[in-house]
Amino acid sequence: MKVSRNGSRQTIAALVEDRPGVLTRVASLFRRRGYNIESLAVGTTDEQGVSRMTIVVEGTSEVGDQVAKQLDKLIDVINAAVLDSTESIDRELALIKVVARPDQRREILDVAEIFRASVVDLSVSSLIIQITAANETIEALTDNLRPYGILEMVRTGAIALVRGEDTTQVVEFEDDELRRFHMGSGRIPTGQLPHLSD
Question: Are 170 and 149 within 8 A, CB to CB?
């Protein structure tokens, strides 16, 4: 898997064991190392007992590499990898509550339509816009809505997948020493049997 070359934001995908305390241990790692988490999303995967974390950190590709290596050392982490921004798809969900006077509603709806966003709630003086898009698109929509007055906004944080047949769930990209460590610790998910060179 290629490393992201985005100079300011790095996206790391980590497969972790689904058990209590994992998120606390990951957050403690970031606190100890002084990394700034821009967003963190956690959810289940198609494999029972395995969750997936998508972590966006500020920094260069070297910072992303270092974060992935430090995550790989945690006992609950099965594997971690930096996603190449040109070879992965990332999306984020945002709900934005905007002031919407009757004479402005048509304008706001037109702005939402340009960004392929949808209105999910309408009241006398406001409306809530929902958008699922890349970070940059959500930022652009927010900038266009700000003149009308944003009352409240909530964002989920990014989730991402590698394009094509590559996947973060295989461990072929790990060196032999790390794979032996993961196999010895029982941290490779069921059905994943990486080949170790002699």
Answer: no
